[in-house]
Amino acid sequence: MTNTALITGASRGLGLALARSLAGAGWNLVLTARGAADLERVAAELGATAIPGDVREPAHVERLARAAPELNLLVNNAGDLGVTPLPPLADYPLDAFAALLETNVTAPLALIQATLPALRAARGAVVNVTSDAATGAYEGWGGYGATKAALEQLSNVLAAEEPDLRVWWVDPGEMNTRMLADAVGAEEAAAAADPAKVAASLHDLIGARPASGRVSLQ
């Protein structure tokens, strides 16, 4: 039987690299991202199903769940950095923080809820992509880090409530991605890890299927 994975934020960065790695191992893929053109190109390359849209929208979440009635792996990779340049918490716009929580916390939970019947049936796995900003006190990273800390605790409780699943909240470390470049500049981002190498480690984790928990890939 072919394994099926649903990956959000799959048009670039870690999501794209993991999609390529899983496709190479014969996985069936359902991919989503907001950029339709980029996502369609990726899907054509990998022979995957592309469902472009915004994971904050309930109708889109429902479409994704319907597209994967049999599901072995959910990867909540889509996320937002928030306000840039990164502001101190004293100046963080509260409306922007509320929007960031919706993207980085509420949307992953909504997709988990929508796909849980299929994941339970397959005794599958959930990967929630987090960050060391969830645990470290880095100036300017308070808004983003707070959302990732919330996602980590959500994952921790989900693992306790769904013992037949594997739930991993995964800190990929710094990677050479557009998001990191937006935060720290292109020159510093270029020195970070290649997402393909990080995706290979994540693929190994998925294959090894260790106990639920927090995982650092670098």
Automatic annotation (TrEMBL):
InterPro entries: NAD(P)-bd_dom_sf, Sc_DH/Rdtase_CS, SDR_fam. One of its GO terms (molecular function) is oxidoreductase activity. The keyword Oxidoreductase applies. The keyword Oxidoreductase applies. Keywords: Oxidoreductase. Pfam families: adh_short (PF00106). PROSITE patterns: ADH_SHORT. GO terms for cellular component: membrane. Belongs to the short-chain dehydrogenases/reductases (SDR) family. This is NADP-dependent 3-hydroxy acid dehydrogenase YdfG.
